[in-house]
Specification:
- The structure is a homotrimer of 260-residue chains.
- With 260 residues, chain A is of the alpha/beta class.
- Chain A has a single domain, classed as UDP-N-acetylmuramoyl-L-alanine:D-glutamate ligase, CATH 3.40.1190.20.
- Helices cover 52% and strands 12% of the residues of chain A.
- The first copy, chain A, has an 8-stranded mixed beta sheet, sandwiched between helices.
- The two termini of chain A are 30 Å apart.
- Chains in contact: A-B, A-C, B-C.
- Chains A and B meet through helix 2 and helix 10 of A and helix 5 and helix 10 of B.
């Protein structure tokens, strides 16, 4: 029996190029339970990457959508009752089919009820959680740091894909820092939500969740740098990053990647 | 008594120019029961054409919105409970005022429950249904083809406005193929939804539903070609097609139309 | 005791420059109960101004979001049951913390039930209401005019920030006409909604509601004029106004302001 070896940080740029090629070749379906602010931008970012988004939250059909998908995103922004029910059904359907899924615990630092719900969802074995700094602290009770991320990843058996000025992606045994991106990314609503959707798209075509999560954030960061060259502000940047992601090639990822 | 004669395909480009002029002159109100992914883009496309969108789904006011409108769109994407109730009330209100309405059976190929609901709605006499290939098959049980479309149109007394690489618009007696458009249209979320809203806007100002439906898809296709000249990818294309539709003139439609 | 003096119209351009600086310096949090058409554009406009948006409508967390915010927007577009409940809770939470809030009575001229609800909300002491002409008439029973606006402001103890070709902002004792803006602003969906969100952002950093409301509409109008210089139509205009707002400086506001 051969134990598959997790790639090292230095392997990620080439792997990201490979994963992007797989997404474009296979067109994986990604079902998104996400908030109304993010739906349109998320769908367009997934389409730009080469994936096929769907977004229904109706309780009596979400299981059928998930059963026909390759990965699931559960995003807690604007988290109304119907989306909670939908998330519950969708996660159950994903578990039955062994589908990878991503939890984006949006704004759990603002709402204790939402933080409780997020902690319950972590028990249901997402492949990855994708918080920002404040959300990680609300989720884990710890401040952001390499040790805290790896400890949480180990304790919960989950990949932590933390967004920030430098992104950090940890599993129980590995951590990588990704320094790509542009400050304009923080000026566009739903950029983090779209990043989480890209993590789901990568999980659909790559079995190792640490590699998939890191490669997704690397793609997004490089696309952001390309987009910033053509942007006059956050409005045109939001448009340009969709173009940049659709136009992204493996060579650019490898040349621009800053991972350590 | 003079029986109004349905135009032939060759008449459609000039008719589309006329209909676009009517939309801009009259500013018809189009009420849209549509999904959260599509709402913003649909509203902006209707405004670009010269129509006035409204989007409420609240059960105790949707009838009053429809009663003040000139056409209705019912789009089944992200089809939650509240939208089902809203669709039911809106269709009833449209029937009472003899308003034209369009059914966009989004993703019914993915959800049996949604397909059943769509088939029930077809019984309530929409002026047009606007499926893609997979949705037409789920609706009719038949593969796409000229005969299948006309047969369905005849059996259900409805216009079928099928989107695809080539759009096909059929009623019981006529079918037209529209070859305008650009591949980028398939890379932008809610493009089909916006097309269905344009069908509704055209139905508001043109009594013959086959002509109205065909002219709407022709306008969208020509606007897409104009937009592609200024686009660097799907992000800028989604912006440029709104500009192109707002800027579209009858002369361009007539020059660029490819209808047979 | 010194009674604070309300600025005069001529003071507003410089005050708008000051308020914009405060928003960028303080990053006020603005919670928005708003419609699905407007959510994304509103969030991006708030971010462009320098504010931090949140948008949840879930009944059991909206109070906690409002309690952590600096101002509240209640927008009645696509006004479903859940948003009515959320508005009720949010307004109560705002009252407890003495937070300023804005009411945008979208489309109340189309729906009697919505108009009744809006009149009830006016009793709950918003800092400002932000109608267009038809909505003001539905709210007040009067036609738009300087006297009618000031009378309504006096009777209800509220600032009226009316949008139109010329914006008018009235309290019991003052009225200002703002002639900035561009016709393309009426061609983009949710532009009025975003304007109301900017009013909320200004109220978060400026205690006088008349000044805050007028300065918000002035900023929006000047940003619209800047955006129009780079726009080819309503699609690119919607993008350019986000860029323009992010790029807006006090000097440009003072130079371009047309207030009387």
């Amino acid at each position: 029996m051969q134990i598959p070896q997790t790639p090292q940080p230095a392997d990620l740029p080439k792997l990201a190029a490979t994963i992007l090629g797989r997404i474009r070749g296979q067109g994986p379906r990604v079902h998104c339970i996400t908030n109304g602010v993010a739906q349109n931008f998320t769908a367009n970012m997934l389409l730009a990457a080469g994936a096929v988004p769907s977004m229904t939250i109706a309780p009596d059909e979400v299981a059928q959508f998930v059963a026909r998908c390759d990965a699931l995103l559960v995003n807690l922004g604007t988290f109304d009752d119907e989306r909670r029910v939908a998330a519950d059904i969708a996660i159950e359907a994903a578990a039955q089919d062994d589908l990878p899924w991503v939890l984006d615990p949006v704004f759990i630092d603002r709402s204790p009820a939402r933080a409780v719900f997020a902690r319950e969802l972590v028990q249901r074995k997402p492949s990855a959680v994708r918080p920002n700094h404040a959300e990680f602290s609300a989720l884990s009770g710890a401040s952001v740091g390499h040790d805290a991320l790896m400890q949480f990843a180990r304790a919960q058996d989950v990949v932590v894909a933390l967004s920030g000025e430098t992104d950090l992606v940890a599993d129980a045994a590995h951590i990588v820092a990704i320094s790509n991106g542009d400050p304009l990314m923080a000026r566009v609503t739903a950029m983090g939500c779209a990043g989480s959707a890209l993590v789901a798209a990568c999980l659909a075509v790559e079995a190792d969740p640490w590699s998939a999560s890191a490669c997704a954030l690397l793609m997004l960061g490089v696309a952001g740098e390309q987009a910033a060259q053509n942007a006059k502000g956050p409005g045109s940047f939001a448009v340009a990053i969709i173009d940049a992601l659709a136009d992204l090639d493996g060579k650019t990822i490898v040349e621009r990647a800053r991972v350590t």
